[in-house]
Amino acid sequence: MVKPWDGESKVGGIGLMGAPLSKPSISLSGASQSPSVIRQMFSSLSTYAIEEEKDLENERITDFGDVEMHLTNIPESHNRIYETFTHVMKEQPEMVPVILGGDHSISYPSIKAFAENKERVGIIQFDAHHDLRNREDGGTGNGTPFRALIEEGVIRGDQLIQIGIRNFSNSRPYHEYGKEQGVTVFTMKDVREQGMTELLQKSITQLKSKVDVIYISLDMDVLDQAFAPGCPAIGPGGMTSDDLLEGIRMLAKEPMVQGMDIVEIDPTVDFRNMTTKLAAYVILTFMVNRG
Amino acid sequence: MVKPWDGESKVGGIGLMGAPLSKPSISLSGASQSPSVIRQMFSSLSTYAIEEEKDLENERITDFGDVEMHLTNIPESHNRIYETFTHVMKEQPEMVPVILGGDHSISYPSIKAFAENKERVGIIQFDAHHDLRNREDGGTGNGTPFRALIEEGVIRGDQLIQIGIRNFSNSRPYHEYGKEQGVTVFTMKDVREQGMTELLQKSITQLKSKVDVIYISLDMDVLDQAFAPGCPAIGPGGMTSDDLLEGIRMLAKEPMVQGMDIVEIDPTVDFRNMTTKLAAYVILTFMVNRG
Amino acid sequence: MVKPWDGESKVGGIGLMGAPLSKPSISLSGASQSPSVIRQMFSSLSTYAIEEEKDLENERITDFGDVEMHLTNIPESHNRIYETFTHVMKEQPEMVPVILGGDHSISYPSIKAFAENKERVGIIQFDAHHDLRNREDGGTGNGTPFRALIEEGVIRGDQLIQIGIRNFSNSRPYHEYGKEQGVTVFTMKDVREQGMTELLQKSITQLKSKVDVIYISLDMDVLDQAFAPGCPAIGPGGMTSDDLLEGIRMLAKEPMVQGMDIVEIDPTVDFRNMTTKLAAYVILTFMVNRG
Amino acid sequence: MVKPWDGESKVGGIGLMGAPLSKPSISLSGASQSPSVIRQMFSSLSTYAIEEEKDLENERITDFGDVEMHLTNIPESHNRIYETFTHVMKEQPEMVPVILGGDHSISYPSIKAFAENKERVGIIQFDAHHDLRNREDGGTGNGTPFRALIEEGVIRGDQLIQIGIRNFSNSRPYHEYGKEQGVTVFTMKDVREQGMTELLQKSITQLKSKVDVIYISLDMDVLDQAFAPGCPAIGPGGMTSDDLLEGIRMLAKEPMVQGMDIVEIDPTVDFRNMTTKLAAYVILTFMVNRG
Amino acid sequence: MVKPWDGESKVGGIGLMGAPLSKPSISLSGASQSPSVIRQMFSSLSTYAIEEEKDLENERITDFGDVEMHLTNIPESHNRIYETFTHVMKEQPEMVPVILGGDHSISYPSIKAFAENKERVGIIQFDAHHDLRNREDGGTGNGTPFRALIEEGVIRGDQLIQIGIRNFSNSRPYHEYGKEQGVTVFTMKDVREQGMTELLQKSITQLKSKVDVIYISLDMDVLDQAFAPGCPAIGPGGMTSDDLLEGIRMLAKEPMVQGMDIVEIDPTVDFRNMTTKLAAYVILTFMVNRG
Amino acid sequence: MVKPWDGESKVGGIGLMGAPLSKPSISLSGASQSPSVIRQMFSSLSTYAIEEEKDLENERITDFGDVEMHLTNIPESHNRIYETFTHVMKEQPEMVPVILGGDHSISYPSIKAFAENKERVGIIQFDAHHDLRNREDGGTGNGTPFRALIEEGVIRGDQLIQIGIRNFSNSRPYHEYGKEQGVTVFTMKDVREQGMTELLQKSITQLKSKVDVIYISLDMDVLDQAFAPGCPAIGPGGMTSDDLLEGIRMLAKEPMVQGMDIVEIDPTVDFRNMTTKLAAYVILTFMVNRG
Ligand SMILES: [Ca+2]
Ligand SMILES: [Ca+2]
Ligand SMILES: [Ca+2]
Ligand SMILES: [Ca+2]
Ligand SMILES: [Ca+2]
Ligand SMILES: [Ca+2]
Ligand SMILES: [Ca+2]
Ligand SMILES: [Ca+2]
Ligand SMILES: [Ca+2]
Ligand SMILES: [Ca+2]
Ligand SMILES: [Ca+2]
Ligand SMILES: [Ca+2]
Questions:
Q1: Which of A143, D128, D214, F116 is a good FRET partner for D95, with 20 to 30 A between their CA atoms?
Q2: What is the Cα–Cα distance from D144 to D166, expressed in whole angstroms?
Q3: How many domains does chain F have?
Q4: What gap in Å lies between CA E88 and CA E67, rounded to an integer?
């Protein structure tokens, strides 16, 4: 289903791009191995969506491969992600990029590249964490990407909607920073009480007035540990995979949604590739509900 | 609770029969070890169902042991399953056979033996997959049992109801083959939207006009990977164990249901025997709701 | 968030006390390692509850450390738990003790110590099992604590409410013993059909007329195996972690609730500390809903 | 090869007796599961010793089963071992008992029972550790059996020879206690420099003047961690399995050797049952070189 | 270092051929995954042999890929191995085939194909087991390949030398069958007492008078479990990897040695690919000592 | 045995310093966790060396803690190691530093700091690999430390002796670079044929004429994979732990030896902490043979 880019064609559907970087992570992370494992998982899935009676056979995913990382220069690695993705997205204006992290730090250069090629960008971030830490202490790590995007002026705070933020997983100052910046935050309590569909309807309505395109940043640790056992920062109190898939089906149908990344899966600690399997399933669910 | 057959008695309740065969599986599978591990799991469970305040103490399960498999002749192994089960079921007309696989290939000889001893047989198959692949390429493997039953005339397509069929887990041609043959298919979308109870009511109503007895073929991979981590083909998007148990409670109460198999658990890749524990729990749930 | 007791202060909030004992367990159990692992899990959690927008920073947990166990004299170990906790609770009348087991046998000396310092004590026990076995055969093991409390006159049977009792996990005689003694039993069927909130409202109403304070005894195996993979006696058919957290939020708001223990987690068989993470999350959820 | 005792016969060869007790261990130990796992390992071995061209088919091992342990009373469990083994050994004067631990604490009641039925007993203990700790602190644990035997007058210190004692694994006071009591100690340096055969020749010569029979107490942690990965107290600097088997072959040929125990294997932490496999191999090696 | 065959060239050095078949194994075996894992291991090794100061850069290994197996027809799978290898070896008379199993059953069709293209073939089999079981019971499994070769007249018994045969791992009748047939057997005792070099000198001398070429059949379970933890039939009492590599260096220098297989590694139970790493190391050691 | 530095005292014996950095590693490595795990391993070892009958009780190890690493700036992390160690070594001229990596990249700043405080430094490097890669491609990674030391003029090539270099683990150009620079290389073949003692005698003799002090850089992957299963780059063909300990005992007695590092252990992939246990054992073996 996934085929390598031939080096020439203009791509109409999904373009897969790997950012195999997890050295910026606060705790030891093998998320750099995710792009290759997610690709393997595709090979164990079929193209046929029986629920929608739709076959993706003729809409295969084009794979642009991985950006090569520098061994010891992390800012250079981030820069290579930015440069490469900027170039590919410019060459492929019709393509919907789906970026495979890596840890969440890769969303900073990825979204920066995405924004360069689009008008105003709105972000729907699924995450247990704000990822709004300051960058003075440790540079651009996996706790800072959205802070970096705001501070560098790539987005304004009110272009960012965070869904699934969880208790005991964030410090108050970052929540307050988000509020000051106008970030919309839906906690897990909101998910439990209002449901995914309602939250996303609100989110899309709100973004429509402010942005031209929407980018989904999916940190898999938004899921409860029972459903995503392979994230570095697993924990209880998160959403089910059914909640997430319900959200993906809805977002796929929204034409403003034009890009996505999936981050924070460490295949070396996963159980039987459950979490990368789910990531591949999310991408196919997006595709089948797209057209 | 489980006691070996004494070699003579007529058995009234459940008769356990093991088919420890998984060499026909497409991917490496230790499902051949399931019968012995499921038996161990029984020994860690009690006979008392507090929810129903009913004790199964006096309705113990009779264990007919395992069919001995041939080391290198797989068709011969299938044949031994067929011959043995035909013999036992003939000798034990009152018994409700519960067959422990093995991979799903064992359902072909098992149901063939079951049908030989009954009138028309309806099948309710819980599965993420159709298992309707053609047999030209690889013989009777774990992807073909229901194709084989239809092609060999054991059942007609409209005697088969498949529940829990999943996206990206099946090829379109097999869905189409099923439709041509009159197979009823309820996808996971149907399960999510209509609920197990409603689907099963429809299923039983539909079968009642066509068959005399119903056989449940339970491929544990119908469950979401979070609830059945030990199936060879785990994946996301499946049902919960609560969904399944709700279904089992309902089917147990239907007198037409006269047989069952439980297949596709590989204890060598399971986590702490979760999946075989659930299989044993399913059997006891069936028993307690039976009488 | 957790700080050791300074040896002097009167403690107002939660006082953590470890009872690292699991030699009384029927099957091999490393639950003795839970207190230290749960403490480690706290260090990976923040104090901020975004759902309630409340920071626990100034209500940190006071840690009284672990009771030292005897190497080979189990009754002496139980006695040390009783003596130590009696002493601490007497010195700290305002403190809400949260006791980290160990296996469930530690609830006997723990609740006995708790009761000594309070008027009449009601117990809400979350558990798949009654734990009402007789003590003639094996002394005070992890299957007997509530039998021991009743037989020793620490509580009457009608002061005990059991929630989450499960099929095929208990023998009938212990259910009958419970009924004779006036124990209230809510099975998993009750949880599924009535919901946690309703069951707990009934429970509190019922206890209010009989007791002065309520103690929660939380055996983590009340959870389904998918949500608490690290309990010695995992199994299917249990509650979700959402069910449990809903219950904890409600109980925390009830001022009569004055103590708690969390038992039966074996970190040596857990998957990525999921179960101890959940235990720490339960304690923080209790705290944040308390005040 | 191993057959259960028929309840009557006088046994000529090896009599297997299980002491499934590891609650006295200082660190968490599943050594209680060793007897059953070692028995399983026998079933994967044949009776034929090609090196000696000798078949053990007609000298099968008689299995007296396991002593049943008390759930919470450890001294009672030790006592049951002592009582049961005393009884069996008295009834079976020709039998060579091979006792399967359990942790090393079981050697105290086992050797006491052995000594009761024999004249003066010499012990050749293979171990990384002296096991001469005092019993004031924790009773009879797995660090005290030889202290207990000396203090209770079962043996004098000069009847004990320790082989394989290792650096950084023992406290000086216990070495000194051993010297005061006349215990002979061969360290791993002695093993490396003199070789197993020479050490054992010295040992036997020395014991011959003092005792009537010799008992081998084999703590598997005498082996280097690469060869016995399943011992609770694994470490580097130990002997190879070849060293040990060389010693066993030699000791088997010595008619004074009349009993043995094998202790301190925890199958729950082993790698692919390597250590229990080696234990079974040791017993067969003993048998084949015996007669 | 390993490059796929271009479909045309005549190959001078080593030709790699995979036989990914382990369904004929007596116990569950994932040895079918070995060919692909051994290939991965090559990619983590360099071409440079510093001990010999020789670079294999220009003598790369040609990879003919894997024979495709039938899903359920095991004799057909064996036949495909035979047909394919016969064809390749005929086309490539200069090539030294190195065959990657698979279980040991694949040596029967492999050596039959090898023999077809050569004059008289001598076999040096490294193995803990004779593999001389009869085929009446289970057909050509992984315990029968050398019996099959003798019975089918591919070799006479005196063309077979077995090295490393181990105690308690073989039944006497198969040893006797071997002796009757003139098979030369060197047990582990011979390896320990005479050393690998001496045994191999004897072996080569003996074969020289009887055969034209020598084929090495390397069952990795000839190694002690500490050195080959990933074999299905691991056990103690085997040789070290140093012993084996010493043997390989010697055999590589013997021009009569013209083929080899490496079998019985199950990567799914190995520890960190130790055993497949060693297999790749063996092949390179063979190459570097060859020229 | 290990006590934290009091912030004032002059240290006479061993000073432990942690460099928890493994982000410069070519493959994913958790070697950053080694310092803390090695410290835990000390706590399970005693101070008494029975082989030498010497107690280290009064020569405890002083622990200077870990250097704090930067989250995303690897050169800054290396610089912090250099600055911190330079400072500590200057303040503690009598101390023998023992540095716990981390990956081998930390030896560059560590040895640079060591050299700054000493006259000419000789290095005895135990390693399977040269670690002489160029730094153009990836900066100072774990394959370059000795190249960096030579290129930066910290040592000349003839001040470096490499022991245990292995086949198929190095590229020829780096061997040639080493020869050009006058590096002495002893391969595993040299170790097998000449023995550790002889190689080290040659090494010390050779260094004596050129340097004032000797520093041991111990990459644990010099050991065979059977003895050090927790190194990132495990493989066959290496030395035994006995070989290594023999070398350490000899080097400890040489007064010129004044510093050491131990690197390349990844506790997250080790088996039961075998490799960190061995590291702690190496340090104690060094100490006991020192004085
Ligand atoms: Ca994130
Ligand atoms: Ca996150
Ligand atoms: Ca199926
Ligand atoms: Ca299926
Ligand atoms: Ca309980
Ligand atoms: Ca329980
Ligand atoms: Ca011992
Ligand atoms: Ca010991
Ligand atoms: Ca073989
Ligand atoms: Ca073999
Ligand atoms: Ca290195
Ligand atoms: Ca290295």
A1: D128
A2: 17
A3: 1
A4: 11
| Structural domain of A63 | 2-288
Rounded Cα gap, residues D165 and F273, in angstroms:
21
C-alpha F44 to ligand 11 mean position (Å): 27
From chain A, pick out residues whose CB is under 8 angstroms from the CB of B232.
none
User: What span, in angstroms and rounded, lies between the C-alpha atoms of B67 and B23?
Assistant: 15
Place of tokens 């098992």: B110
Angle between helices B107-116 and B74-91 (to 10 degrees): 30
Could you tell me which residues are beta bridge partners of residue A134?
A: none
What is the rounded end-to-end Cα distance, in angstroms, of chain D?
Answer: 17
D146: nearest Cα among D157, D136, D138, D137: D157
Give ion ligand 4 contacts, CB < 5 A.
B 127-129, 219, 221
Cα–Cα distance, C182 to C184 (Å, whole number): 6
pLDDT tens for each residue of chain E, 291 residues long? 889 999 999 988 999 999 999 999 999 999 999 999 999 999 999 999 999 999 998 887 999 999 999 999 999 999 999 999 999 999 999 999 999 999 999 999 999 999 998 989 999 999 999 999 999 889 999 999 999 999 999 999 999 999 999 999 999 999 999 999 999 999 999 999 999 999 999 999 999 999 999 999 999 999 999 999 999 999 999 999 999 999 999 999 999 999 999 999 999 999 999 999 999 999 999 999 997
State the residue for tokens 């491929």: B219
Q: How far is CA A152 from CA A86, A261, C70, D8, in A?
A: 16, 20, 60, 88
**B8: exposed, middle or buried (Cβ count in 10 Å: 0-12, 13-18, 19+):** exposed
CA-to-CA distance for C170 and C177, rounded, in angstroms?
A: 12
Strands B160-165 and B61-66: unpaired
Nearest CA-CA partner of F278 in D235, D95, C247: D235
Cβ proximity of D229 and F274 under 8 Å: yes
Size of interface C-D (CB pairs under 8 A): 52
Query: What are the Cα distances from residue D121, in Å, to C77, D150, D203, D289?
Result: 36, 12, 13, 22
Q: Which of D188, D225, D236 sits opposite F51 (nearest CB)?
A: D188
Q: Give me the CATH number covering residue B259.
A: 3.40.800.10
How far apart are alpha carbons E169 and A48 in whole angstroms?
A: 50
**pLDDT score of F59:** 82
Strand, coil or helix: A182: coil
Pick from D105, D115, D117: which is nearest to D79 by CA? D105
Q: Which amino acid is at D229?
A: P
Q: What distance in Å separates residue F46's CA from the closest CA in chain E?
A: 27
Distance CA A249, CA A263 (A): 19
Across the interface, whether the CB atoms of C224 and B241 are under 8 A apart is answered yes
End-to-end CA distance of chain B: 17
CB under 8 Å to B168, separation ≥6 — which residues? A45, A46, A47, A48, A49, A281, A284
Distance CA E215, CA E251 (A): 10
Q: At what angle do helices E274-288 and E241-252 cross, to 10 degrees?
A: 30
**B278 contacts C236? CB cut-off 8 A:** yes
Tokens of C167: 């099929």
- DSSP string computed for F15-40: EEEEE---TT-SS---GGGHHHHHHH
Residues of D in contact with F241 (CB under 8 A): 224, 226, 236-237
d(CA E66, CA E69): 9
Please indicate whether, in this complex, the C-beta atoms of A236 and C245 are within 8 angstroms of each other.
Answer: yes
Cβ contacts of D275 within 8 Å, gap of 6 or more:
D220, D228, D229, D230, D231, D265, D267
**Cα–Cα distance for residue pair F207/E145, rounded to 1 Å:** 57
C-alpha D107/C-alpha D260 separation (Å) is: 9
Contact D256, D270 (CB under 8 A): no
| Tokens coding F7 | 């912030």
